[in-house]
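Subgroup meeting minutes
Present: P.N., E.W., G.H.
Scribe: E.W.

1. P.N. recapped why we're keeping a running log of single-chain structure predictions: easier to compare across weeks, and new members can see raw inputs and outputs side by side.
2. G.H. added today's entry (265 aa).
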Amino acid sequence: MRIQTIELSSLGQFIEAVTPDAPDPRTGRRRDSGIYRGVGHVEHRLLTSLDRLGGEDPPHTKRELESHILRNFIRYSRPFVDRREHSDWEMLVTAQHHGLPTRLLDWTYSPLVAAHFATVDAPGGDRVVWRLDWQRMHHAFGLRALAFQTADIEQLSGDAASPLTPWSLFERDPSAAPFACMLEPPSIDARIVAQSAVFTLCSDNSRAFDAFLAQHGLLDALTRFLIPADAVPRLRDQLDLVTIDERRLFPDLDGVAARMRRYYS
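Output recorded in log:
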């Protein structure tokens, strides 16, 4: 089984490629059900920030520090976050959103947002947008057809008396049944909303996400959209033309400054 690769030369071709051929019989709409992740280098694997913490050659070298990292984030974030209003899962999402290394992997519902992150950096080279059929993944692991949220992800344990928490996941017996799921974060700030952000959560933090899917016969849940280096400038300009840029996706002064910096470079 191999990952399907589709080469792109324009934004229009990308939109056409992700538009379903026929309307959904339930809704009558042509809406894609996948989620997307843009990366700026063709060789980059689907590594989480925790995977990359000790370097990428090899990755996963500091995965045993996962609980210590989150515990200290919770400790030092107290002046900025009221713990009485946030569950441990919400704290994990908040930590990931602010750059803490976690096992969460960033995705978006929007193929155009993913294309932005794949093409925004100036250095040359081919780029990639990954698409994940998360419903196919859920089905393979016996999970419901709906995305999980921080309010209900504890149900993944299958035991109401012992709900799944970040801490129980970190200490999970390696022989326990594996899973990977899609997690919709709460709208903790405007960036989450503007970027249509979602995450994948995997029970295994010892291998890249694509390697985990391969191990479970799920490579066909991934599609790899390849943007050759000579097509990147055109696709980048087309994204700017339809206002998929830093100012829209980072609706604050950082986003305004980043857009101006790139526009005038």
